[in-house]
Specification:
The protein is α+β, with helices and mostly antiparallel strands and 512 residues long. The chain has 2 domains: 433 residues, Growth Hormone, Chain: A (Up-down Bundle); 64 residues. The protein contains 21 helices and 5 strands. Strands 1, 2, 3, 4 and 5 form a 5-stranded antiparallel β-sheet that branches. Strand 2 and strand 3 form a beta hairpin. Helix 5 packs antiparallel against helix 7. The longest helix is centred in the middle third of the chain and has 36 residues. InterPro entries: MFS_dom (IPR020846), MFS_sugar_transport-like (IPR005828), MFS_trans_sf (IPR036259), Sugar_transporter_CS (IPR005829).
């Protein structure tokens, strides 16, 4: 490729990637702060239910992504790629900023979770139109035979967006006291997004329409009804279904297991300090991100199919051993406590005129350098210990582990391995989808299977898997922490079988 063409496509990638990265940042802020948000927008009397409700609200944004794909995909095939994902950028940025302004549950009651849900739905609609537009736009600028390499740069944006969201949260936490962050500082990452969106808008407004779409439009060959031609045509519908059940469904669950489920697992099951989790996850993402480009480039040489299927198969086989090792790395029953250093500090907190909390804060040290803070809260009303609907004493226990350096790097390595699985299935997927469909209905046709696979199958993973873990724990299963993995393993296994049987290598050059 000539230097002039290379410079031109780098401008395209920079403009597309910047906006897409910001939209992923906006979307991930909510997931990254799920533990904090569960205490702000939902009733605090049942922390587990509040957290599951937060995850369900997070998942709602994914569920509506296919509708965004249909709506904005149709617009993209009718009026063009550029203007469509300009709209999605502004919609996403506005919704994220407003989430940061919503009063807490204590202030406005159930209006808080309702407003958050509405804004999450708007975010989901916007993201449903963003990815297909950006991937299509870059692919239609890329030379034949190099689409895997060039579109893989778009694939890095989701991970970069998650990384930046974690870094913004870490910086905000370090700049504020723990009380200030819990009180209002958690809103800052939401507010920051509006500045990033403005910069991206300035960059994107000077972009030109993709040459492939411009040519199709000039020749009068654009679709008059993209939805009908995409899904009403049996031949094209066959490829839509194959893209979903043979590729994006498995890619979606591998993606969210390796990043969001890993993060939630470290924070809620292993009870590791939130800032430490953000840091180690950020390190794993930095180390893993270049492999998106590597596997995208490799797919141009050897084909998309076996790289994506290989990533799914390895994930299926290794998820349970990896998560078992993650859990045992910080399992306190496998560590030696320094009993002489254990401290218990009792305190009382008046909730209102009739309610009082009795709080016991226990700090423990272990020989390997692990430190644990356990806060046990007993709720009293009118001098009597409160009970739940089952008659059990209402006692809340919160454990926070500060892990040692050795454990931190072991967890970085274990998360990094999962990120490699992600890069194998995700690096080639944009080129794979673009090449399956003709220009005139490409935006619509590729967006739907991508967002059903990622939005429905992938987006529901944190909530479904967390529910499985909670149920197994309540049922007394000693390996409860592994039960949430059956969902991604099952979905990826079905996708692997379908993909291996029905995906043909010729698809790679169908519309190249």
């Amino acid at each position: 490729m000539s230097d002039k063409k290379t410079t031109g496509i780098w401008k395209v990638i920079s403009a597309s990637s910047m906006g897409t990265m910001i939209e992923w940042y906006d979307f991930y802020i909510f997931g990254s702060l799920a533990v904090v948000l569960s205490t702000k927008f939902f009733p605090s009397d049942n922390p587990t239910a509040a957290f599951l409700s937060t995850l369900a609200t997070f998942a709602a944004g994914f569920v509506v992504r296919p509708f965004g794909a249909l709506f904005f995909g149709r617009l993209g095939d009718l009026i063009g790629r550029k203007y469509t994902f300009m709209v999605t950028l502004m919609l996403m940025g506005g919704a994220t900023f407003v989430i940061g302004c919503i009063p807490s549950f204590e202030t406005i009651g159930y209006a808080a979770p309702i407003l958050v849900l509405i804004l999450r739905l708007l975010q989901g609609l916007a993201l449903g139109g963003e990815y297909g537009g950006a991937a299509t736009y870059v692919a239609e600028h890329a030379p034949a035979g190099e689409k895997g390499y060039w579109t893989s740069w778009i694939q890095t944006t989701a991970t970069v967006g998650l990384f930046i969201s974690l870094m913004v949260i870490l910086i905000t936490k370090s700049a504020l006291s723990k009380e200030a962050f819990d009180d209002w500082g958690w809103r800052v990452p939401f507010w920051v997004s509006i500045l990033m969106v403005f910069v991206s808008y300035l960059i994107r407004k000077n972009m030109h329409e993709s040459p492939a779409f411009a040519k199709t439009k000039a020749e009068g060959k654009t679709s008059t009804n993209p939805l009908k031609e995409s899904f009403g045509n049996k031949y094209n519908l066959k490829f839509v279904l194959l893209a979903l059940f043979g590729a994006t469904m498995g890619q979606g669950v591998v993606w969210y297991t390796g990043q969001f489920y890993a993060m939630n697992f470290l924070k809620t099951v292993q009870c590791i300090d939130s800032s430490q989790v953000d840091m180690l996850l950020g390190i794993a993402l930095i180390l893993g991100t270049p492999f998106f480009v590597f596997f995208g480039w490799l797919s141009d040489k050897v084909g998309r199919k076996y790289i994506m299927m290989g990533g799914m198969l390895i994930a299926i086989l290794l998820y349970r051993p990896i998560y078992k090792q993650m859990y045992e790395t910080t399992d306190l029953t496998l560590k030696s406590e320094i009993v002489a250093n254990t401290k218990v500090v009792p305190s009382m907190k008046e909730v209102d005129a009739t309610k009082m909390d009795s709080i016991y804060t226990t700090t423990k040290m272990y020989t390997d350098g692990t430190a644990v803070e356990e806060i046990q809260t007993k709720h009293f009303e009118a001098g009597k210990l409160m009970v739940d609907e089952k008659g059990k004493e209402k006692i809340e226990t919160k454990i926070t582990k500060t892990i040692n350096s050795s454990d931190k790097w072991m967890l970085v390595f274990l998360v990094f391995i999962q990120v490699i699985f992600v890069t194998m299935v995700y690096g080639p997927i944009a080129a794979f989808l673009v090449e399956m469909f003709p220009v005139k209905i490409r935006y619509t046709s590729m967006s739907l299977p991508y967002h059903v696979g990622n939005g429905i199958f992938g987006g529901l993973l944190p909530a479904i898997s967390t529910y499985f873990v909670t149920s197994a724990k309540d049922g007394g299963n000693p390996e409860f922490y592994l039960e949430g993995l059956w969902y991604p393993i099952g979905i990826a296994a079905v996708c692997f079988v379908i993909g291996m049987i029905y995906i043909d290598r010729k698809i790679n050059t169908l519309h190249d």
